[in-house]
Amino acid sequence: MDPRVAWMLIAIVGVVAAAGAGLWYWQRQRTMRLRHQFGPEYDRAVREAGAVSRAEAKLEARAKRVADLHIRPLTTDECNRYRDAWNLVQNRFVDEPNEAVTEADRLVGEVMHARGYPLGDFEQRVDDISVDHPDVVVNYRATRDIAARHAAGEATTEDLRQAMVHYRTLFAVLLESPEGRAREEARPAASITEKPETAAKERQ
Is the pTM of this model over 0.85? Predict the structure, then answer.
């Protein structure tokens, strides 16, 4: 074989190998980045898509969509107003659990909209939240399952109480108030069923 041809073949093989190594490294870095950003939501997306490449493409599309939304933090006045509204909803659960859960869902949607998330169906809201708050998405999905059982007349009061706990966690995260979030998360789940007057005394 002509030495020049041999060297040319070696060069071509080297270029192909380098390109392959570069592609492998890029894919590995993308996977690590998305796993870090989405946490357990990454594995769920892979299971649903059936292939890593399709799942990662969908997750990147989610992240780009939310980046284009220009999500903003709430002002202090807005945080205080929404926190007061939540306290009213939570107190209502004692006597009207069905209405309280419905109102909690509406309030969460209102806070999302105030921060810049567009109004949409449940799945779109879940996808949007998963970009910045993947750890609470599992709980948010759980509220939909409870709502479905409730619509079928199969949800118990305990199911509704659990839905309120999930909403409370998501609500605290959306407010992005460290002190408010710490206070909400520190309260035991049983506090959802306290009498209004008891909860009022605790806040004094």
Answer: no
